[in-house]
Amino acid sequence: MSEEILINVTPMECRVAQVENGVLQELFVERTARRGLVGNIYKGRVVRVLPGMQAAFVEIGLSRTAFIHANDIVWPKTDGERERTPLISELLHEGQSIVVQVMKDMIGTKGARLSTDLSIPSRYLVYMPRGEHVGISQRIEDEGERERLKSLIRQLKAESSATESGGFIVRTVAEGVSEHELRRDMQFLVKLWRWIQDRCQTAPTPSLIYEELTLYLRTLRDLVNADVEKIFIDSRETYTKVQEFVREFMPEMENRLEHYPGERPLFDLYNVEDDLQKSLQRKVMLKSGGYLIIDQTEAMTTVDVNTGSFVGTRTLEDTVFKTNLEATHAIARQLRLRNLGGIIILDFIDMEEPEHRQQVLRSLEKMLVRDHAKTKITQVSELGLVEMTRKRTRESLEQLLCESCPACQGRGSVKTAETVCFEIFREILREARAYDAANGYRVVANQKVIDRLLSEESAGVADLELFIGKPIKFSVEALYTQEQYDIVLL
């Protein structure tokens, strides 16, 4: 499989595209003025403890206070280790200083989600200074390699008393890596942790202690593996920074770096811009003629599968089965591309054959294997619904690039001109009962509403004028949405 990383950098933002076999699979965007917070470590102050929610609000210097749950707090355990999580009031009190790490970015009206179980990633390892566990990435499937890596990490930990109190997770890219590379990574992480500890002692409260890498360096650390053939960067300055980073931490990848100086934009060359625009639409077309409808709400995301113009060549069951199978490929790609997280409901077309349901589910599981975010799916229900979750750490592409429509306030629909006309009639009646307008009333509204008042609803206007005994005049306000209007007393 051919895989390429495209890095597009401007002074305002950085965008990274992951392309597999010429098809965009994932897109990451980081605005210079609004960088993501996940992975940042802060020295914060507890401002409010909520016993009823087993949680607390923590001031870390952001526009909104952050949130921490009792389950995300590491507490010292005695010899008679407690099984239960202590009450939040036993762990925190107002005014207390606390060192925390951001687990989830601020999303919508919600503040950042925090944890005191700190983790510091490098190329091959993740260091957990407040843990003891040694874990191996589940994507490393070879049992012999898993055992080699686990033994090696334990051996390296034993060599240095400085790391005895910390735990490590071995990342997927560490498969086949030498002892020398792992030792170097471990030494770097321990040295970085000591620096963080020193900063925690001297920094004021609240303040940022450690900031996660920029998007393009984070991408190299987390996404680049042996499958990546080329890494294209369209900024000479960024290319130089990436070269230095790669030489230090991943020299085996240096020959895959390439500066792109072409006149045609890099993302246009790979049709990334077109795919980006399509990823913001509700409707996703399938090659067969079927399509998906993706609706994102605050509570969950729903994906509806439809046959569309695909009629098949055999039976209805066969047509439905093929559409659902094709949809599993598109769904897995759209989840990654749009960075959809939380609860996701997949509404497949109803299938009569139990074996077809199982094949669709297996296909979906297979397609999700390459997803970097953790996913969990259930069986296909009698109605063809699949419930799944996908770990959400950052805003979705839609949340990052879009805002609620000012006309419909995010509902996805607006009142018809007819409905607004009837609302205006009722409002004029209320005004007539409450106030004495000597010279009548003026309706200020959207062009489409005024047009209807003067045409289809003209008889109603005449009846209303007769009933209230006052004239009604009309004015168009081009800046008003279809639902906006004013009644002015003359």
User: Which architecture of the largest domain per CATH?
Assistant: Beta Barrel
Specify the number of helices: 13
Based on CA atoms alone, the radius of gyration comes out at 29 Å
Domains (count): 4
The computed structural class is alpha+beta
Report strand %: 25-35%
Let me know the CATH homologous superfamily of the largest domain.
Answer: Nucleic acid-binding proteins
Query: What is the CATH level 1 assignment of the largest domain?
Result: Mainly Beta
Total number of β-strand segments?
Answer: 24
CATH topology label of the largest domain: OB fold (Dihydrolipoamide Acetyltransferase, E2P)
What is the helix fraction of residues, given as a range?
A: 25-40%
Uncertain residue segments: none
Average pLDDT confidence is 88
Q: Describe the largest sheet.
A: 6 strands, antiparallel
Distance between the termini: 73 Å
Shape, principal axes of CA atoms: globular
Briefly characterize the structure.
By secondary structure, the chain is of the alpha+beta class. The chain has helices spanning 88-91, 143-159, 179-202, 215-223, 236-249, 266-269, 272-278, 316-338, 354-368, 397-401, 417-434, 447-454, 458-468; strands at residues 3-9, 13-20, 23-31, 41-50, 55-59, 66-69, 97-104, 113-115, 120-121, 125-128, 134-136, 167-170, 207-210, 228-233, 257-259, 283-285, 291-296, 300-306, 342-347, 375-377, 385-390, 441-445, 472-476, 485-489. The protein folds into 4 domains: 3-35 and 213-273, eRF1 domain 2 (Nucleotidyltransferase, domain 5, 2-Layer Sandwich); 43-75 and 86-210, OB fold (Dihydrolipoamide Acetyltransferase, E2P) (Beta Barrel); 281-398; 417-489, Hypothetical Protein Ychn, Chain: A (3-Layer(aba) Sandwich).
